[in-house]
Amino acid sequence: MNFKFANRVLDIGTEKAFQVLAKCRELEREGKDIIHLQIGEPDFNTPKNIIDKGKWALDHGYTHYTQNVGLIELREAIVDYTKNYKNINTNINEIAVVPGGKPIMFYTIMALVEKGDEVIYPNPGYPIYESLIRFAGGTPVPMPLIEENDFRVDIDDLRTKINKNTKMIILNSPANPTGGILTKEDIEKTAEIIKDKEIYVLSDEIYDRLVYNKTVPFSIASIPYMKDKTIILNGFSKTYAMTGWRIGYGIMHENLIEKIDRMIANVTSNTSAVAQVAAIEALRGPQDEVDKMREEFKIRRDLIVDGLNSIDGISCKKPEGAFYVFPNIEKLGLKSEELSDYLLKEANVAVLDGASFGEYGEGHLRLSYATSQENIKKAIDRIDKAVKRINI
Ligand SMILES: Cc1ncc(COP(=O)(O)O)c(C=O)c1O
């Protein structure tokens, strides 16, 4: 049927990862044994104490609506967690619980950005940022995060991008797809540039527990004059292996919460009560599973980085956060999309092309190491053999 679609949905973006997954499923139906390095979710199960609490919630009446912005007990747990882990003071009126980290992007961009507004966003970066800026009618302005600069913000470049139309800057540290981390100095300098301007910051901190150098990533909201202008996006998907539960949250000024509260009332009413109760357990319960997962990710990171660097034509920096590597493939002489298609067909290894994270991601692939050490070793071997067959 030929729908007469509203203009706003004609060009809405998506995530390549879901498209590649669909392709993989077709190949798997034909009997191919695909190694999945395209995925952006932990391969671990949710820790047992959290699952048990979810079951408990079902048995104890958590089968009803909750407040739009989430249960008070969960928001209290988020307040305590944010104080204890990040040393940021907040309160329950500054928190909105939503189904995943992603809706915080949607709600806050929709609430703040309109036609004529420019939003500076990380490129390469999580593709949904650019998609939502456009969806809201704003103009996306890429902030290049390049390898020579360890995928960090180039402050001089950022300064040139800010003008009277700039409404928001999006930061993401540790980052998808590069695994890069912004230093405290990067963030302080960014804040300094916008100190006296009405520019908001969406700080995507969803990978804040996945850091391998034992530091707590610095949040721009820790700078007192930035607190009111910052929206922290965080959640449970990555830290607690809870992608399928769909729960995350935003921390922002209560005047903005008021609008988000109404938007939630218009869309989902609330986040699943069961997921909310389980999330309280995630924050208040033992954290040893989180530590174990991080230790395992670190071993895998080292394995995949060493493996990629042993392949002729590929070089890979060692990232300090998240569970992705972003190797340079320029020497192979193929565009990143050609190479990722080739690897899927010829090596049965699914990866994402760097260009699908923005034009500054060209020349790279994104590989997720959220898979077993055995799969990583097998994938490296397959990639090595397939790359040797490319005529360069
Ligand atoms: C940078 C970044 N932010 C947010 C999200 C969304 O997380 P959630 O699944 O909780 O919506 C992702 C998921 O891949 C991500 O990589």
Automatic annotation (TrEMBL):
<dbReference type="Pfam" id="PF00155">
    <property type="entry name" value="Aminotran_1_2"/>
</dbReference>
<dbReference type="GO" id="GO:0006520">
    <property type="term" value="P:amino acid metabolic process"/>
</dbReference>
<keyword id="KW-0032">Aminotransferase</keyword>
<dbReference type="GO" id="GO:0030170">
    <property type="term" value="F:pyridoxal phosphate binding"/>
</dbReference>
<dbReference type="InterPro" id="IPR050596">
    <property type="entry name" value="AspAT/PAT-like"/>
</dbReference>
<protein>
    <recommendedName>
        <fullName>Aminotransferase</fullName>
        <ecNumber>2.6.1.-</ecNumber>
    </recommendedName>
</protein>
<dbReference type="InterPro" id="IPR015421">
    <property type="entry name" value="PyrdxlP-dep_Trfase_major"/>
</dbReference>
<feature type="domain" description="Aminotransferase class I/classII large">
    <location>
        <begin position="32"/>
        <end position="383"/>
    </location>
</feature>
<keyword id="KW-0808">Transferase</keyword>
<keyword id="KW-0663">Pyridoxal phosphate</keyword>
<dbReference type="InterPro" id="IPR015422">
    <property type="entry name" value="PyrdxlP-dep_Trfase_small"/>
</dbReference>
<dbReference type="InterPro" id="IPR004839">
    <property type="entry name" value="Aminotransferase_I/II_large"/>
</dbReference>
<dbReference type="GO" id="GO:0008483">
    <property type="term" value="F:transaminase activity"/>
</dbReference>
<dbReference type="InterPro" id="IPR015424">
    <property type="entry name" value="PyrdxlP-dep_Trfase"/>
</dbReference>
<comment type="similarity">
    <text>Belongs to the class-I pyridoxal-phosphate-dependent aminotransferase family.</text>
</comment>
<dbReference type="InterPro" id="IPR004838">
    <property type="entry name" value="NHTrfase_class1_PyrdxlP-BS"/>
</dbReference>
